[in-house]
Amino acid sequence: MEPEKKAVVVTGFGPFGEHAVNSSWVAVQELEKMGLGEGVDLHVYEVPVEYQTVQRLIPALWKKHCPELVVHVGVSGMATTVTLEKCGHNVGYRGLDNCLFCPGSHCCVDGGPECIDSIIDMDAVCERVTASGLDVAVTISKDAGRYLCDFTYYTSLYQSRGRSAFVHVPPLGKPYSGEQLGRALQAIIEEMLDILEQMGEKINGRHEH
């Protein structure tokens, strides 16, 4: 019998503001072309920049695919590196989305913890990817920006008990191409899966769902 394939869900965002082409979705489409190897079923989704859609969509993706890992990718106009976000924040959402909507409570989950960390050691991922000689700089951040990126990350971390990741990418050509960003995502996600597998083996070799 062939070992079961692991499901991995990767999302990018649609256009918003000055980002008529969102580099996060371009990068995710490049990743989809390359794939994550034989053992992984990769599912990609373009997420509209809308709070209410995110609140509906993220739990639905977890339910549909029961993924090993969900990685959300977003663009940051200020980023010049590929940035691994360590945590998502619950409160402080005041920016209007593409529907000119903003959560009345300014938070993701009423009564949820202020901050949720990913269970993945982002420092380790960063070190490993950097050591692999990738032509893209990778850095770490603890602030995903209190807009839809952060909102999506928190929603996903809350849903998955920390089994999610968020990667910020710079706009296209500043300085990387879509293909370079796709390759960087591939390297990053492979390391994340490797780390999750090692963690699973430590916890008695079985994944409890």
Automatic annotation (TrEMBL):
GO terms for biological process: proteolysis. It catalyses: Release of an N-terminal pyroglutamyl group from a polypeptide, the second amino acid generally not being Pro. CDD domains: Peptidase_C15. The active site is at E85, C149. The keyword Phosphoprotein does not apply. Pfam families: Peptidase_C15. One of its GO terms (molecular function) is pyroglutamyl-peptidase activity. It is an enzyme of class 3 (hydrolase). InterPro entries: Peptidase_C15, Peptidase_C15-like, Peptidase_C15-like_sf, PGPEP1_Cys_AS, PGPEP1_Glu_AS. One of its GO terms (cellular component) is cytosol. Keywords: Cytoplasm, Hydrolase, Protease, Thiol protease. Its EC number is 3.4.19.3. Its main location: cytoplasm. Gene3D superfamilies: Peptidase C15, pyroglutamyl peptidase I-like. It is found in: Cytoplasm. Belongs to the peptidase C15 family. Monomer. Removes 5-oxoproline from various penultimate amino acid residues except L-proline. This is Pyroglutamyl-peptidase I. It comes from Geotrypetes seraphini. The lineage of its organism: Eukaryota, Metazoa, Chordata, Craniata, Vertebrata. The gene is PGPEP1.
